[in-house]
Amino acid sequence: MSSTLSDVFRSHPIHIPLSSLPDLKSLPDSYTWSPKDDLLFSASASDESLPLIDLSDPHATTLVGNACTTWGAFQITNHGVPSRLLDDIELLTGDLFRLSVHQKLKAARLENGVSGYGVARIASFFNKKMWSEGFTVVGSPLHDFRKLWPSHHLEYCEIIEAYKEHMQKLAAKLMWLALGSLGVEENDIKWAGPNSDFQGTQAAIQLNHYPICPEPERSMGLAAHTDSTLLTILYQNNTAGLQVFRDDVGWVTVPPIPGSLVVNVGDLLHILTNGIFPSVLHRARVNHVRSRFSMAYLWGPSSDVMISPLPKLVDPLQSPLYPSLTWKQYLATKATHFNHSLSIIRNYLSSDQFS
């Protein structure tokens, strides 16, 4: 994945200077958001709840399928990821962001780079700054973690490797639950591998920190976006902030439930299901009482896999909505067109843009 993302980001660098978040009692104008900065900034909120699914439920396939179809996101329990590992990844994230700015900048992400410390790449699409900082891990974290913790980086590397292993297995399980609800079988996806365990897939881990903010109602932790993935699996600490958007209800806050994980459909799974599963818009808000940490596992296919609507989900009454393309090609489109990317590539269906 490092090669896949590096090629894309080298062609689409972001020019955003790194700086620490201001420690002030009022919000600087550069961090003050309004509807003119994001059309959905002040969209209505709802007290509806995201589906909570126990993966040990014998009806899990149906429940996951319904959640993917109606929401594009859901929370899960009994997912098989050890609680101790979740505690460890949260501890690692807290330790990382509590380092001094000087120390964190030693592992700063390059403008055209993939891994390291920095602001969200989507920041380049907005005029206002976001009240957050992040750290991206692609491949081995050894190189960057050695810069952050010269004497005890190996224990943190072990946590990341264990987390990746468990998340990969969980992502594959969720993929088959979701697609199984649509009647898709293992032999319908050749790139799942000989054991249908998606071992050839790629992923990134995104660690996020949303510090205490003096005026949270006028700020934004992470602006509304969809993920350029098949699936994203998120673990959040005990502070609320994640919100998902549905047209008929508005913004819905996803409260932290101890030991649970949040799953959302990404753009590529939306394409794979020919639009049946919506790729959900989501964002992060901040508060003035407690800082928030989240850890996202961003899961996608291998570089050379062509993603297109599955033949089983296409028929004379429902033609393909999207052309065939690789993750690398989609990332390049997303790097230019951001949240308009899905509609952009639909317009290429009858052209040879991605051939």
UniProtKB/TrEMBL annotation:
GO BP annotations, alphabetical order: gibberellin biosynthetic process
Enzyme Commission no: 1.14.11.15
Keywords, in A-Z order: Dioxygenase, Iron, Metal-binding, Oxidoreductase
Gene3D superfamilies hit by this protein: B-lactam Antibiotic, Isopenicillin N Synthase, Chain
Keyword presence, Iron: yes
Pathway named in the protein's UniProt entry: Plant hormone biosynthesis; gibberellin biosynthesis; Hormone biosynthesis
Record family assignment: Belongs to the iron/ascorbate-dependent oxidoreductase family. GA3OX subfamily.
Name listed for the protein in its UniProt record: gibberellin 3beta-dioxygenase
